[in-house]
Amino acid sequence: MSVKYKINEPVSAYQFIELLNSSTLGKRRPVDDRACIKGMISNSNLTVSAWYGEKLIGISRCMTDFHYACYLSDLAVSEVHQKSGVSKELQRLTQKQHSCSSR
User: Of 3.40.30.10, 3.40.50.300, 3.40.50.720, 3.40.630.30, which CATH number belongs to 3-96?
Assistant: First the structure.
């Protein structure tokens, strides 16, 4: 089975918390505050996610104007899948979403 990447695929608060806890970001994010996590994921206007089957294994979570500026607030990959190129691909696909990025 290969990793599939999706743009703005719905991610539940539970899936996001599970990913954060399986990555190094869980210690630095409010994973015990479900309402906050739900707000973080639902109010991001760009997410690029990595899936292994039905399991979320990586995410790039951003705020962007889709033309020039993009603030990448979270880049998380489960520790099991780190060092396999998932993070680089999430970053590449995030950058590709900007119409001015190729200029």
Answer: 3.40.630.30
Helix (H) or strand (E) holding 93: helix 86-96
Burial of 54 (0-12, 13-18, 19+ CB in 10 A): exposed
User: How far is CA 16 from each of CA 44, 51, 99, 103, rounded to the nearest angstrom?
Assistant: 12, 12, 27, 33
Query: Model-level pTM?
Result: 0.91
DSSP class of 10:
-
Under a CB-based contact definition with an 8 Å cutoff, are residues 94 and 72 in contact? yes
pLDDT in tens, 85-101: 999 999 999 999 876 65
Q: Encode pLDDT of 32-54 as tens digits.
A: 999 999 999 999 999 999 999 99
